[in-house]
Amino acid sequence: MGENRNRRNKRKSKNSLSNRMALIGITVVVASLAVVVHIGGASLRERDLEYQAREQALEKSLAKEEARAAELEEYRVYVQTKQYIEKVAKEKLGLVNKDEILFKADESS
User: Fold this and answer.
1) Are the CB atoms for 95 and 89 separated by under 8 Å?
2) How many CA atoms lie within 13 A of 53 on its CB side?
3) Contacts for 97 with CB less than 8 Å, ≥ 6 apart
4) Could you give the maximum distance between any two Cα atoms of the chain, in Å?
5) CA-CA distance, 1 to 52, in Å (whole number)?
6) Contact (Cβ atoms closer than 8 angstroms) between residue 78 and residue 84
7) Is-contact 23 31, C-beta < 8 A?
8) Whether the Cβ atoms of residue 70 and residue 76 lie closer than 8 Å to each other
9) How far apart are alpha carbons 1 and 5 in whole angstroms?
10) Residues 6 or more apart from 89 whose CB is under 8 A from it?
């Protein structure tokens, strides 16, 4: 009977030791996973900040380009008007309307 008790105690101590080792192993694995997730989260937050800054820069650029497109559209409409044609004819070609009189300054003085 004493022998059975010894065997049981040895089994219990072996089982207890293996249970502790398993528990320690699981704890180490969970802790390492927590560290990896934390580091990954930090890098994701950093990347998110970079993307937010890039998004803001692109939004500013888009606003500038939209304003420029509006200006070009206004200019395109203006170029098709009679007023623009007359202006170019006077400035570049020196033409005048029928009812206008052109006075030139005497350059010899």
Assistant:
1) yes
2) 6
3) 86
4) 141
5) 75
6) yes
7) no
8) no
9) 7
10) 95
Neighbours of 88 (CB within 10 A): 12
pLDDT tens figures, 50-85? 999 999 999 999 999 999 999 999 999 999 999 999
CA dist 32 and 40 (Å) reads 12
Q: pTM of the entire structure? A: 0.51
Locate tokens 């937010």: which residue?
52
14 CB-near residues (< 8 Å, 6+ apart): none
Distances (CA, A) of 9 to 1, 15, 18, 50, 107: 13, 10, 14, 61, 126
Q: Which residue type, as a one-letter code, is found at position 79? A: V
